Amino acid sequence: MREKIRVSLEAKKNRLRRRLIGALGESIGALALLAAATFFSVLFIYTYNYLLSASYFEIKEISVRGVKELTEKDILAMAKIQPRSNILAVSTDVVAGRIAANPWVKHIYVGRELPDRLVLDVRERTPIALLKQAGNFYLMDREGVVFKKLSKGDDVDLAIVTGVNVEAKVQSALMTEALKLLETLSTSDQHALLGTVSEMHIDELFGLSVLTDKGLHLKLGRENFAGKLHQLQIVLSDLEMRGMKNGHLFVDLADVSKVTVQRKDALEKTQEQKKGPQYRI
Question: Number of helices and strands (H, E) in the chain?
């Protein structure tokens, strides 16, 4: 009986010893892991601080790309990057946010070229027209975005667009097509005979009207502008054969099946007298 009790006590002591050894081993492992984590954290902080203070990573060049309306000096002033700044310490998001606040900036990319070069790649908005409303003028880009009020420093020579609400958040389908037409007339030599568009009026009910610097007043309606421009070339060729090449003309192309052409001076008399010469092509 005593032997059994002694054996049982020995077994309990052995189990307790094994548990203590196991717990001690786990504690030592946890302490070793904690020490390793602390060591690498301190090493990381030391390395990070060293890199941030190392002259090797001081910004020696800032490259500004893509500017036309703005200047490199403008971009650098907006970026507000301090001299001798460490390239790793500069927040590219903060710098990009400062530059993007300018209405001319459509997109800005700020990138690092290690060890000492910062790149500011700017994509500017391209104005295609001046939007007139309530006696003020606003710059509008190719996407129909009204991005800033015209100021004295804006050196632009653009067509004036009327009949559009500057505060409209969504542009109409007619507005979209009108801007496409304006870009076509501005960039294509195919329509050089028409001259440069000086004014474009957009009316959601009656459609589009265009004035050019060659004295043409075109009434284009609401659709098929490409087809109507083609028809206009035929009309103008016919008028040239009739000896009406010169002079200010009003051309109604709203219905291409019955194009009406009238001299502007005759049109003014018509408005006064309710009659006058008309030419149907």
Answer: 6, 13
